[in-house]
Specification:
The chain contains four helices and no strands. It is mainly alpha-helical. The longest helix is centred in the C-terminal third of the chain and has 29 residues. One of its GO terms (cellular component) is membrane.
Length: 99
């Protein structure tokens, strides 16, 4: 019986001596950058709450409209997330980082 070989699916016999996982410094840097970007986005969203009544008065609108405006953050994250997943799946991670 012929064994199927694929780079992502390897048999347990192919690396019997290599049981350690590799840790890359670059992955930790990317994880830190993405986390900081998400913290900045959340800070912008949270900063809207204390000034919602003043913004509603300034723009002469209802405070519910200002609250909906701050909720766009969540909706856009979902929509842009699906678009980003599609771009990375179609073009690869290198081009996905550019978008």
């Amino acid at each position: 019986m012929e064994e199927y070989s694929h780079p992502l699916i390897e048999s347990s016999n192919s690396h019997s001596n290599d049981n350690q996982r590799r840790v890359y410094k670059r992955r930790w840097i990317i994880l830190t950058i993405v986390s900081l970007i998400n913290i900045c986005n959340a800070a912008v969203w949270i900063s809207m709450a204390p000034v919602a009544d003043k913004a509603a008065h300034f723009y002469e609108t209802d405070q519910n409209n200002i609250d909906l405006f701050s909720s766009i953050f969540f909706v856009s994250t979902i929509v842009i997330g699906f678009i980003a997943i599609w771009i990375v799946d179609r073009n690869g991670l290198m081009l996905g980082d550019l978008y």
